[in-house]
Amino acid sequence: MTTAYFLILALLTVSWFLVGRQRASSIAGADPASLHSLPSYHGLFLAALICLPMILIFIVGAPLAERYIEARAFSGLDPATISDELGRSAVLRDIQSVLAGNYAGTATPELTTAASAYSSAASITSWLLLIAGIAAALVAAMFGFRLIGPEFRARNSVERLVKYILLACSAIAVLTTVGIVFSVVFETIQFFSKVNPIDFLFGLQWSPQTAIRADQVGSSGAFGIVPLVTGTLLITVIAIAVAGPLGLFAAIYMAEYASPRTRSIVKPILEILAGIPTVVLGFFAALTVAPFIRGSGESIGLSVSSESALAAGLVMGMMIIPFVSSLSDDVINAVPQSLRDGSYAMGATKSETIKKVILPAALPGIVSAFMLAISRAVGETMIVVMAAGLAANLTFNPLEAVTTFTVQIKTILVGDQEFDSAKTLSAFALGFVLFFFTLVLNFIALQIVKRYREQYD
Amino acid sequence: MKKLLSTVAVAAIAVAASLGAASARDQIRIVGSSTVYPFTTAVAENFGKTSGMKTPVVESTGTGGGMKLFCEGVGEKFPDATNASRRIKKGEFADCNKNGVKDIVEVLIGFDGLSFAQSKTGMPMKLSRKNFFLALAKEVPDADGKLVPNPYKNWSEVDPSLPNEKIEVLGPPPTSGTRDSMHELFMEPGAAEIPAMKALKEKDAKAFEAAWKSVREDGAYVEAGENDNVIVQKLEANPKAFGVFGYSFLEENISKLAGVPIDGVAPSFETIADGSYKPSREMFVYVKKAHVGVVPGLDKFVAEYVSDGATGEDGYLAEKGLVPLPAERHAEVSKAMATLEPMKGDELK
Amino acid sequence: MTDIASTNDIPVTDTPRDALVKKRYRAERRFKFYGIAAIVLTALFLSVVLLDVLFKGIPAFSEYRLDLKVVADQALLDPQKTGDRTTLLAGNYDKIIRDALAAQFPDVTTRADRRALNGLLSSGAADDFRRMVSNNPSLVGQELTVPVLLSDDADQFLKGYQTNEIVLKGTGTLTQTLNGDAYALRSSGDDFGKAFQEIQAFLFQRLDRLHTEIARLEKTLQGMEGDAAESLRGQVDTYKAEAETLNARISDANTAIELDDKLPSLLVNVNGGTIKATQISPAGVDGTKLITPKSAEPASPGSWSILTLVTPESNRRVQDQAATWLEQLKASGTIERGFATRFFTSGDSREPELAGIRGALIGTLWTLAVTLILCLPLGVGAAIYLEEFAPKNRLTEVIEININNLAAVPSIVFGLLGLAMFLNFFDLPRSAPLVGGLVLALLVMPTIIIASRAALRSVPPSIKEAALGVGASHQQAIFHHVLPLAMPGIMTGTIIGMAHALGETAPLLMIGMVAFIVDIPGGITDASTVLPVQIYLWSDLPEVAFQAKTAAAILVLLVFLFVMNAAAIMLRRRFERRW
């Protein structure tokens, strides 16, 4: 039914578009300039007039029709079988499979009757819906058709509609943020009604696996995020220690030294690296890097945990190199040539120019590049899920296992949807902190970039 | 025009989606224990292959988490069955009833030993349940029999015959049935062997219970999440760590891991089946009778589960590490499942 | 990178006055070197990742099959002779295959042995047979050769991942003496001497480990008292006794050594049979049969061999007996290695040899379809609005900041949104591509908006102004002139956004796309998973064979990503215009 309806809708839309256009051209006759709007705008105007009521009628009518069909189908059935939601949906499924001819086994007479009632009701309502839709559309179209004339400002109406549609599109982005905030804030508030925010923010112990039954003693349910903060920080610091120098030097080389050919080779390498899914890097970190670090650590007599922060941090550092380098590349390129020329004129070498002139000038931009890279590292999930641990150790030793915000969110929420325990809610509180933190970081970084751009533009 | 068409397409999708969601589910959905997960997925796969119906969707959520979902209500939004590596608790049964999940069919599928395992590359260890308790309890009796926070850092401090290595045990979180079993099969009997604890049990049963039901939280016991495979991987990487999980996982990884003998008996297929390996437990699948006939194939799925080909002595689940029931017991279960007799619930604790 | 050099190689004369200049040039070269080093390191890392995955993944694209001659027995497949497809689907194909396999090994009589033999076969071994017969009922009753899939363990063994094998051809004449069940094998040449030495070396290693442990324990024992010391002493004594016996086993270069399952296995292939050594001395081995030799005649040099399986039996999943069977089947030429089409045509499975990525691939397609349909029109629409129509006011500024920030929100937070909004609030089905697509659409929309805006901005204003100048309306100028010119850029941005969505895992974990799903999803509301999540699921499984499957799935994912990125680059190269 849905398909037929929308097919007809499309058909009507297209045909009335043609009709409208034709009508407008014929009114204009030999003098197209006599029309206020181009003929195709008149067509579009009619098409929109067809479309809107038909969609509206479907959105209102389809659920009503559905309800009516179900009522008709159920009317002949034993009330016991359809006493609850479960029975009803089962009967509906059976009816649909009977109608589709793939019912397993032989259908009972009642079921067959119900199926025929269902199908007759379905055909009646779908015809009704179709007729209503078409009628409404035609009425609207006739109304629109009468408006067509040299004076009619069809273009303005259509353009107004398009503008609203475009506005709605960009509003989606805002709605997404609102949605995120709503979905984490409510649960977070609920969480804080169970756990003191002070304990949450400053507690030194993270042990969320509380008992889930009255007769069970789980862990005490400590929700202090300090170990998670230090864990996240440790891995991020390692990542930045790797990505910072590598990314920055790569960017300097690319911007200042590399020939166009070198750039055309190196750029794709960085792009490929940026495009590798993090689940792949996680697999690599867990199965190749972590055992390697462990093996080499043990061979020089260090005790290395099987899921050291170092392994996750190193791979994450590699992941964010492209971020650092491409952002820094941009800001270095944005430094005006006049500064360079000035420096060269003083007899400075290229590296001296870079160190003494270009980098200081580009510093704000580089700082913001680092901040964006940090926010990326903090929010990264798969690498740490696969290569870092679950043990909430409060340590700064990179050879030990630590855990992060994202790992905990994933661990708590996968396969668990119990929205009344502090444990589940804590994941949303973590998500909130994460969201807030990255938001602030990005905001600051973007402001710096903006100001920096203004400085040179 | 383009804009218009794309708007229409979006609307069509939204509407189609809302209609699609309205018709009932024809695919069985199962949640629950990660220990039973490998067995249920194997049965599901076989069921899908031979019955011509859709293969059930199995999600691993832990016994406790699964029970919660299972007991939330009757209807297509809720799972049809849940895996459990322990019996349903009285409280959970009451929860179920409260939410309208009245007729629950209990399917006993076999046994699993709870094993304490280490990497093959590590130094082999032997352990008693008493030492297990002393190493992992949150509070242990000191020299005067008073409960103090667990002071032991290394195994050799618990018992000098044990290696002088840091205590590092990876085990399940409280949502897991394996965790419950760990308390009931390791901690409680272990505690009962210590004179000071025995005295406590007579004096204050509540305090005794709290003692064996609490695990230390200072890093010696690491909750490794619901997925037992993760523990296996971690053990492989770290020869000094130990892990607590179902025997089936040990069996699957016997080339890498070794079971630590508990009270002198190493876990094996034979020792679990004949009962000489003490920490062993029954495994269940719970099914909603109300969903039988509603979700197609649910009864057939149960029949497949209790068939000789699956849970029988030479069934394919035995190859996956499930220790099958004795022949008569299995025959009994298969017979009872033919009628899908719901459980009464008064035998639970 | 050959053309980087020689921009600064200005000759410097070697006078003291120029020392500073020299130093400065050295610093210059050093600085440049850092840049090259950074790039080389990054490239190195990338190639290590790719090679590592490639190396791990390639084996998963092949599988070992056994070509088995079977009779499609009417009584077992279709006793009523209905010829009906459903009856044929339910036939007992496993029994036919198992019996046919057992017939090749007359030695196999006990139940335990039969179980071990059947363990060589995959639990889906009969799938191909079933498909052949049910598609062509006329095959019933005929004799056929069917491909039978081996189990993952057997497959891994044949691919050489379970143990290293060393084959030594016999140089002397081998005589067999049968004493009850025990075989005594003696060679006229020095064939067993080398094997004996290796076993000895193995035992010495073990002895060393024991001695270290004893030394450690004795050190802790010093100054200890009481029960604890007592039990520790007991431990030390046990170890000492063990060391003693071990010492005795290897003390003499000529005493025979007992072989247990913690030592490498020695298998002697002679006269079509296989003897497993239980005791070895430089002169020869004593052992038990795994496959009975066809004759007891002495074997001439070169006609027999010693096969050493280096990994001890207790550390292997394929036992000596099974290994022998596999070796014999391989020698008889009935085992073949073929391309694993199954990997692309079947859904997930708990058996590594049966698991495939089709379900995940189709799930990915559905999910990405939903994503694309939603985010392309919305993203482009938003970009046009913001770039061209939005009034310069606070609201617009808020939207702009918002979109920039949204682009950097961690993906897992979008998962939280999906869980709380779409699943809990709107009650959409769990694990469905519909929800996955919605979440991913919101996730990549900022990327598309930003790319589209950049593309729109890169079209020179003169184009628009010219259009306006000849009387086009604002919208006409945009839709008729600016947008078509910006289209390549928009498409590039969209492809890159979709590639991003294709690789995304974390938010999908939150909305239940991590279940065990075998069936191929048939629509956007069916339970399904996607490729990256499948990779994550497989990477967590304990079976070694799944590691290769994971890497193989990664390869497939990477191929898709490269194709998409290459398309984006092509598009950019082809249509990029410098104004």
Automatic annotation (TrEMBL), chain B:
Residues 21-308 form the PBP domain. InterPro entries: PBP_domain (IPR024370), Phosphate_ABC_transporter (IPR050811). The keyword Transcription does not apply. Keywords: Signal. It holds the Pfam family PBP_like_2. Residues 1-24 form the signal peptide. It comes from the Bacteria. This is Phosphate transport system substrate-binding protein.
From TrEMBL, chain C:
Its main location: membrane. GO terms for molecular function: phosphate transmembrane transporter activity. Keywords: Cell membrane, Coiled coil, Membrane, Transmembrane, Transmembrane helix, Transport. Residues 207-256 form a coiled coil. InterPro entries: DUF3333, MetI-like, MetI-like_sf, Phosphate_PstA. Gene3D superfamilies: MetI-like (1.10.3720.10). GO terms for cellular component: plasma membrane. Residues 361-567 form the ABC transmembrane type-1 domain. The chain crosses the membrane at residues 33-55, 360-386, 406-426, 438-456, 476-496, 551-571. It is found in: Cell inner membrane; Cell membrane. One of its GO terms (biological process) is phosphate ion transmembrane transport. It is a multi-pass membrane protein. PANTHER family: PHOSPHATE TRANSPORT SYSTEM PERMEASE PROTEIN PSTA, PHOSPHATE TRANSPORT SYSTEM PERMEASE PROTEIN PSTA-RELATED. Belongs to the binding-protein-dependent transport system permease family. CysTW subfamily. This is Phosphate transport system permease protein PstA. It comes from Phyllobacterium trifolii.
